[in-house]
Amino acid sequence: MAANKDTADDLSNEEDLEKALCVLAGSDPENCSYSRGYVKRQAVFACNTCTPNAAEPAGVCLACANKCHDGHDIFELYTKRNFRCDCGNSKFGEFKCQLIPAKDEENVRNHYNHNFNGCYCTCDRPYPDTDDQADDEMIQCVICEDWFHSRHLGCTTADPEELQEMVCETCMNKAPVLWTYAAHFAVSPVISVSHAEEEEEVDVSEPSQSEHEEPSTSAEPTKQEEVANRSSPCKRTHEEMAGGPAKAASKTAACRLKDLQAAGPERPRHGAVFWPYGWRAELCTCVSCKRIYVTAEVQFLMDQSDTILAYEEKGLDEPFGQHPLMALMSSMDRVQQLEVIYGYTELTTSITAFLQQCVAEGKTVTVEAVHQFFEELRARKRRRTNAGYQ
Questions:
Q1: Does some domain include residue 315?
Q2: 179-221 pLDDT per residue, tens
Q3: Chain-centre distance for alpha carbon 385
Q4: Where is the UBR-type domain positioned along the sequence (predicted)?
Q5: Structurally, how many domains does the chain consist of?
């Protein structure tokens, strides 16, 4: 049983590593993205060394984070849509971009939030947060692109069987038509109900029918069940995604939103909403609905290539998307791959814990402390090897 658990942990680590590398794979590590204008989606970083003023947030591309801000206090913002690299513009004072020195003073179409100052969620806390003892994952809203602690989403959900996209409550209210689609196509909301000495989760996706109500005889519920019960793998190919726009286009003859509003019922307008991957293809694209999306500034929801999954898959097809570690692992057998992943994860986890401990204890990171740290890692590896583990 222990061996099986270790293998499961390694597989999970592999998925985490691949996901992290995919974020970088879709962006160019050598050339500043500024000349490409407002890039549809790219990895973005903020530099606390150069732009510590919260009133003047700024973001830089992957290449500038590597070249211009090497050794600076930078933090990763994951990806941002329609963003143009700020490195060296007026927000950086006398600091100039080493890759493209001549840039506009400001990128007026960039959107910034508190993430650029290292804060996240409705609690406006940093990540990682050394003062937060809760073991809580963070989830990104696909509209505002802010990150939220799962406990601050206003809802709880069961572990997903397939990839899902999340829209926070604020963004749902920003585009209230989404509540109508949520009643038919979103993942069923789950709330926690406390009893005397136990807590159970209750599905509240559909209001219960009274004995006097007759079940619906329309074809729409069948379609809803089909969407809700998809059992395909988490990651879907571009060929599968390609069917989305065509499917949506076939629905433009009539306004599907009006049909759904008439069918009812509407979902309670509370908490974040989780959607199964491919839900965007269900959005009506008639002229009237397109105007609604533009007014709410969520027109990108009609674009199937706007998703994080599409960005990651495209990045892995690019020449510069082949991360050295992933290229190295491609030539290894399965056992060797797991060994590399385990070692990489153990090293990064240990380094993070070491640095956090130094900060918590107010210690200066000296050369001697670093040597001692790596000697302890080597000793740990020798003990594990002598015990018969790799």
A1: no
A2: 999 999 998 876 544 343 344 444 444 443 333 344 444 444 4
A3: 37
A4: 30-102
A5: 3
